[in-house]
Amino acid sequence: MSIPSTSQHQGRFIAVVGPSGAGKDSVMAGLCAARPDLHRVHRTITRPAQEGDAEDEPYEAVSDATFARRAERGDFILHWSAHGLRYGIPASVQSLIAGGQDVLANLSRGALTEAGERFETLVVLHVTAAPEILAKRLNARGREQGAALARRLSRSAPPLPKGLPIIEIDNSGTLQASVSDALAALYPERG
């Protein structure tokens, strides 16, 4: 499957997926630092804002009722539920993509099929890491412990939908290497 390239006319919607602890947000931050023209989408999430969240992933925290009103109003081009929370991608990304800008968003693999229908230029960046690395990172994060952490680590992820352009990045090593690999795959003409 070939990866859609950036054109003068339309940018790409780059959906970043992977298990918790794979380092998706770190890879995304590294990509944005290396490519200031890359727009990082701030999702809307029905998760209360927590100290340190802005460092991990900038997002807009809203109540369930507010999210439902905004979804009904059409404020989101894409929205889904996962792990008891609701997530939304603002409809404003359409104008960025139409203007030729690549956008980068943390997505659930369960939303990929719909994203493929909504975005003609969808590219999936699948970030993974070795199981022992995932366990170490999730433990350090401290959001879940004991049985809850064990359940998260034991969940098997459904396969990625077939037919989508997918870039695989193993983030078990250094972040710099992972970001370099992602840049080379996304922007081979500059590599």
Automatic annotation (TrEMBL):
Pathway in which this enzyme or protein is active: Metabolic intermediate biosynthesis; 5-phospho-alpha-D-ribose 1-diphosphate biosynthesis; 5-phospho-alpha-D-ribose 1-diphosphate from D-ribose 5-phosphate (route II): step 3/3
Gene Ontology molecular function, alphabetical: ATP binding; ribose 1,5-bisphosphate phosphokinase activity
GO biological process terms on file: 5-phosphoribose 1-diphosphate biosynthetic process; organic phosphonate metabolic process
Amino acids binding ATP: 18-25
Catalytic activity, EC: 2.7.4.23
Keyword Nucleotide-binding listed: yes
Reactions catalysed, as given in the entry: alpha-D-ribose 1,5-bisphosphate + ATP = 5-phospho-alpha-D-ribose 1-diphosphate + ADP
Signal sequence extent: none
SMART domains on file: GuKc (SM00072)
An example Gene Ontology CC term for this record: cytosol
Keyword set, alphabetical order: ATP-binding, Nucleotide-binding, Transferase
Domain Guanylate kinase-like: 11-187
InterPro entries: GK/Ca_channel_bsu, Guanylate_kin-like_dom, PhnN
Enzyme class name: transferase
UniProt superkingdom: Bacteria
Similarity comment: family membership: Belongs to the ribose 1,5-bisphosphokinase family.
Job of this protein: Catalyzes the phosphorylation of ribose 1,5-bisphosphate to 5-phospho-D-ribosyl alpha-1-diphosphate (PRPP).
Protein's name in the database: Ribose 1,5-bisphosphate phosphokinase PhnN
Organism: Gymnodinialimonas ceratoperidinii
